[in-house]
Structures are given as structure tokens and as C-alpha cells.
Amino acid sequence: MTCSAQVAKGGVFGGDHMRFTIKTEPLGWVVTRKHSEFARLKIVLDKLHPGLVIPNLLKKNEKEKFEDDSNRKRIFVYEV
After folding, report:
1. Class of 2-61+69-79 per CATH?
2. Which of 26, 52, 70, 76 is exposed most, by the fewest CB atoms within 10 A?
């Protein structure tokens, strides 16, 4: 699995935000999601599979939202 991050410009009702693109192997599926969507997915997976250990996501920090180091850490977690 590979992951990358890019800034998505906000529209009329929202501001700029980070979007993370993930490509799965071996099927090659590509999805693009916001951090909040990964957070909701983790909640659902924790409820559906209580015995499975799913790594915690990094907390969303508005100050660090667009910093490279912060996004590198998120990418690492998403790739796990």
C-alpha cells in the first residue's frame, strides 16, 4: 500500500484541508479521503471487530494541518 498527501482547496462552505490518497496492493484500488473519514472508519472497525488491534490515528491539529512532518506521520499510520 502506498499513501500520499495533498492540500485540497476549500469550496464555498469549507476551508482548505488535507486529502490522503491510498493505493492498495495487489488490486491497485485508489481512494482519496480526509483525516476525519479515516477517524470515522476507525470507530466503525473498533465496534465491528473489538478484538482486533487497530492503530490509533494522530490527533488532528489545526496548526500542523499542512506541515510536512505532521503529514509524514499520518501517512505512516495510514500505510500500517
Report:
1. alpha beta
2. 26
Question: HEC states along 10-78?
Answer: CCCCCCCEEEEEEECCCCCCEEEEEHHHHHHHHHHHHHHCCCCCCCCCCCCCHHHCCCHHHHHHHHHHH
**479521503: which residue's cell?**
33
Delimit the domains of the chain by residue range: 2-61+69-79
Provide the pLDDT for residue 48: 96
Give pLDDT tens digits for 18-54: 888 888 888 889 989 888 888 899 999 999 999 998 8
State how far the alpha carbon of 56 is from the alpha carbons of 17, 51, 64, 74, 75, in Å.
20, 14, 18, 10, 13
Identify whether the C-beta of residue 20 lies closer than 8 Å to the C-beta of residue 32.
Answer: yes
Enter the C-alpha cell of residue 52: 482486533
Stated pTM of the model: 0.61
